[in-house]
Amino acid sequence: MEQLVTVVTTISDWLWGVPIISLLVLSGLYLTIRLGFFQFRYPLYIMQQTLGSVFKKPKGEGDISPRQALTSALSSTIGAANIIGVPAAIMFGGPGAIFWMWVIAVVGMAIKFSESVLAVRYREKNETGEFVGGPVYYMAKGLKLKWLASWFAFALMIELIPSIMVQGNAVSSAVRETFNGNTLVTGIIVAGLVALVVFGGMKRIAKVTEVIVPAMALVYVGAGFIIVLMNFSQIPEVLGLIFSYAFQPMAALGGFAGAAIAETIRWGFARGLYSNEAGLGTAPIAHAAAQTDHPVRQGFWAVIGIVIDTLIICSTTAFVVLSSGVWTRADAMNDPAALTTIAFQQYFGYTGSLLVTISLIFFVLSTIIVIIFYGSRQAEYLFGLKAGFLMKVVYIGSIVIGAIGGAQMIWNFLDLMLAMILIPNMIAVLMLSGEVKRLTTEFFTSEKYYKKDVAEKKAS
Questions:
Q1: Which CATH class, in words, describes the domain spanning 11-459?
Q2: In whole angstroms, how far apart are CA 334 and each of 20, 37, 415?
Q3: What is the pLDDT of residue 411?
């Protein structure tokens, strides 16, 4: 068994290195060019149509508001990666990795936009009258490849079991370290709270995430912003580190071992892609349920998801770690994941470490809630509504198993299983990019959408 784990780990490490990063970067560049650099041409308009319209009544039909679809999608992307993944990227790739994280975020917008446009374009209603959509629907209806849709649905449904175990373990570990809590009790309490939400359907999930996600993001980003302001004089130096070492190797410094340019780019790209999940095909499942009058309008909300997740929250962590100087500590390389907590503790004492722990717990909790919804939708697609209910029970049981550290052996298969859903999804998005292009052109040239919005803006 150990030999199998070694082989799987070697294969997944190789896959998640140059092959998958190249696939995502090149796909993002291709889609950016094919869609006419829309994220660079219309940033203010995209802002107005999303964050600028949160208090307006949504247009079109759907089960949840576009804002709720965004917070649900963000629930699965905002998590441990934003808090403990960013300092790891800095320690292994240097400060320049943050520049490449920003680059891939902007390029990844075209991927996430395309996924969500396709999810709304090919969505349908299930037996209970709810809107359902995502990769399985655009593979089956858009590409007419039902076998690929079934592959994706089955792979995602199974992949989420170890994924939920890892999330459950992250919560129980955080509670044990900060509050000396019992891992089994923590697992049972978390499972109970999650069950109350997920068995209430998409509308209840949306109502919970639209409260948790903005509240915790504001608390975390707000506290991080205070640290950056306290180190205001360091900002030019931090920006200098990020931009200058994006294009040249950095020598060892304190606890930092040094990094070659290839490692800097790789870690920056990897952190950006892992954090915002562009290409995985999960966020479109949430966006498919949104009220909208055109697929492209909902695609804008997916773009804003990357802005919030990577450009705001990940950048906050990066600036806190770099401006506080914790990354140059002699023991920094021993536990890069702890650097954010150390930085917060340095400025706010015990309250700071408590804030990071509580943020992490809530981020992980909301992640579990939404990915259980994603998984149950895949079971529903393959085997019907009853199977969706059954998978929710399996996933909730996985929280408890993960919390006590059970089944750690299968966690090693996680990255390989993620590749099994990402690759077919990216193939589908690229093959359907012509439809995304058609819908985007239609939206920006029609008197019913972009031109009407611009005219109304001028009139007001």
A1: mainly alpha
A2: 28, 42, 23
A3: 67
